[in-house]
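Title: Prediction job returns without error message
Component: structure pipeline
Severity: low
Priority: P3
Assignee: unassigned

Description:
Job completed but the reporter wants confirmation the result is attached to the right record. Sequence as submitted:
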Amino acid sequence: MQTDIDPRNLIGRKAFDRNGTKIGTVDEVYLDDATGVPEWAAIRTGLFTRDAFVPLEPSELVDGTLRVPFDRTLIKDAPDFGVGRHLSPDQELQLYHHYGLDLAAPPASPDRDFGRLAGTEDVEA
């Protein structure tokens, strides 16, 4: 999903599944603790039903609506953690697993040259 979208602008938008079937309305947006990037949307699936969490990556904002690349049934069967609370890392893992998404391994630390080893100084001629 476009990461430059203000998450407040997602709230109240209609959400549709991969087949174009309406899922509901975006109720809340959850940000990644480390990066602040929008990561999950809680979608109100009906008047008397609960909110379902959907991953914002690989979802798309198209013509003012959120397009979620999963089937409505899978979305409605997502684990229910309630809204208005922080998602724990374990809850996020359960959601990723439910949607069949692999978590990317953290990027490897780049090799850093912290200086020369003793005895390897360039000798000027």
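Comment from assignee: result matches the submitted record. Helices lie at 72-76, 89-98.
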